[in-house]
Design goal:
mainly beta; 47% strand; 3-stranded antiparallel β-sheet; 116 residues; elongated; signal; Immunoglobulin-like; single chain
């Protein structure tokens, strides 16, 4: 069984990084919620659009595997989701790129913007 080390910054998933503002009175930062939860395969993220507009959200993270050296290239991962008003999706930030080795998720960030 593969062991997993979580180094995910839940604060950046929960509060967002740089978020765009819609022309509606409400900013995207105030109406899109991202709720992280640890799972055996990675970090499960529930993205819920409570805005009055459709949004496009991109979640980015790097995976580091046990045994990586300082010169091992980063393993950048990302997921993009488009959500209509009131819709939600469950996404998984995983470390599957490491196979059976211990892994960690680092440098996580998410960004959402109004779809125009």
């Amino acid at each position: 069984m593969r062991r997993i080390l979580f180094a995910v910054s839940c604060a950046s998933f929960a509060y967002g990084a740089s978020l765009s503002t819609s022309h509606a009175a409400q900013s995207v930062a105030e109406c899109v919620q991202v709720a992280p939860e640890a799972s055996p395969r990675g970090m499960s993220l529930r993205v819920h659009n409570q805005c009055e507009v459709t949004v496009r959200c991109e979640l980015r993270w790097n995976v580091q595997c046990e045994g990586d050296t300082a010169d091992t290239p980063a393993r950048p991962m990302s997921l993009v989701v488009r959500l209509a008003p009131g819709h939600a999706r469950d996404l998984l930030a995983s470390g599957e790129a490491c196979g059976e080795r211990i892994w960690e998720i680092a440098d996580d960030a998410w960004e959402c913007a109004e779809v125009r």
